[in-house]
Amino acid sequence: MNAPQFRAGAARVDITPPLGTLINGDLISHYARSIHDPLYAKALVMTAGDATVAIVVVDICAMSKAFLDDVKQTIYRQTDIPAANILISSTHTHAAGSVESLLMGAADMPYRQQLPGLIVEAVQRAQQKLRPAKAGFGRVDAPEHVVCRRFFMKDGYEARNPVTGGLDEVKTNPFGAEPSIDRRVSAVDPEVGFLAIRGLDDQWISLIANYSLHYVGDWENGTISADYFGVFSEQIQKKLGAGDDFVGMMSNGTSGEINIWDFLDPHRYPSGFFAKSQLIGTDLAEKVLAALPEINWQTNPGLNVQTAEVAVGVRKPTAPELEAAKAVVAQTNFEQLTGRAEDWYPVYAREQVLLNTYPDSILFPVQALRIGSGLIGALGGEFFAETGLKLKKAFPDRSYFTMTMANGYVGYVPPAHELKRGGYETWRCRTSFLDESAEETIRLRLLDLLQAEQDAGFEFVGRA
């Protein structure tokens, strides 16, 4: 086996929006009034033989498939990296500039027009830094920072669904209803998976970690912050003693129903602004640092990428539901909504009207990357921990993790049985609209791509 030499390069570009930029990720829009820490587009480019792969992690809440398809085409024109070989994911920080319209959070069009060029620049810079390198995968458990945010509630509690007007079986984030909690609904994925890249001179190039924690959110509305994703990235560089060319990244795993707002033990973290994200990001960096001696470094890993687009159905309102929603919209002064609990009903009525214009099915992108003996899956939505755990179970002898909010964004993609239970993540809207079979269809298609790669997963020439 005489595979050509593996090379890698990494770079980051500042994408911090100016004050006044719209921020989404909430029921309504917020405006940037302060910048706590900078945001980045971070790129890792790898090449081996005829294959070149780019992985980009962006400090942003969400980016649609149409938006990213255009970015990938520009990257291809500027770098010759095939669009199919590019993975671009959002961290899903809820304190970043808005490039997509989510619920009543509007897109900031000047920032949306600016961001693509910055992402392209990050990939170009990373490609310019290509040098002989080695790669290794690792993993470590961090169960203390992930909890299921969906709860079965005690008898007598009414979990209202603003779309149907009926009752759900579960309640997401039961603020103020803690005494009515019965138990959590589902298990978490406690693992931090990571891909580490060093030069053959042992100088650090990059480290991409992956953790299924939604975000922390311990900041005041109107703040720009990379959340714990940014803290991890800075802390891992510091703890490695890496140089300025090193690029640390934290990507979002299957965290659709997972956060660290622990309603059963609400006082176990410090409560000040940024205190919790600083603690969690730093602790995860320390855990990854401790796991690095276990890495089996591969000095000449093979590279390959497989992509597919899966046709999945769209949930839309029935004719009577649409007419009822239109009546609510016609009577609502949306400019005066402030995000109160009662505002959910007109907001979701508007969502039904807008969702009705969607096609009956969409093409959903799935992507599988092989880097030496390790595998990475990419999914363009907010998937539950159950999805990630099933995929990991299929590869017990491989290093594997799933990057979500990757190559597109369709909102939540719950398993069919969770859709039936209801809860915030299932409420039909433009951020949760795929049909009941979508999660299984998408997961199985990604599994097909990953299984096609696994037998080739140990193709490399040497070990460090």
UniProtKB/TrEMBL annotation:
InterPro entries: NEUT/ALK_ceramidase_N. This is Neutral/alkaline non-lysosomal ceramidase N-terminal domain-containing protein. It comes from the Bacteria. Residues 6-233 form the Neutral/alkaline non-lysosomal ceramidase N-terminal domain.
